Write a sequence for this structure.
């Protein structure tokens, strides 16, 4: 860590670079620059990109539209990782090209599960009572 760098500014930098990477990868996929049949048929949302502290690794969280064919989309992204890394490195000015790792974003599923639990009759009756 540099002498003028604090943990707070470092985390802001990670967030900023992650957001730049998210925009770049989203743009590449939206334009159809990746010549892959699966990716052409399935619109993909890049929900978040988490950068490692040294900015050499990026975990890319993805969600296909309506969550359909998630495994096929992940496989297609992983197959085209080298191309996406090259393109992202060319568009985001960094010292090193970050290695991309694609994972399914489970946060939507977790949110739906919590919502379903809160709507369950035995939980709803507890939430409805005011003491």
């Amino acid at each position: 860590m540099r002498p003028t760098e604090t943990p707070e500014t470092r985390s802001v930098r990670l967030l900023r670079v992650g957001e730049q990477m998210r925009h770049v990868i989203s743009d590449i996929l939206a334009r159809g620059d990746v010549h892959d049949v699966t990716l052409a048929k399935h619109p993909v949302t890049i929900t978040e990109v988490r950068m490692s502290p040294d900015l050499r690794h990026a975990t890319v969280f993805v969600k296909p539209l309506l969550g359909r064919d998630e495994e096929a989309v992940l496989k297609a992204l992983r197959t085209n990782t080298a191309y996406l890394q090259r393109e992202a490195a060319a568009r985001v000015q960094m010292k090193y090209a970050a290695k991309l790792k694609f994972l399914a974003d489970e946060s939507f599923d977790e949110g739906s599960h919590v919502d379903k639990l809160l709507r369950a009759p035995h939980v709803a009756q507890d939430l409805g009572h005011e003491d």
Q: What stands out?
A: The chain is about 55% helix and 15% strand. The first strand starts at residue 44 and ends at 51. Strands lie at 44-51, 57-64, 99-104. The longest helix spans residues 7-31.
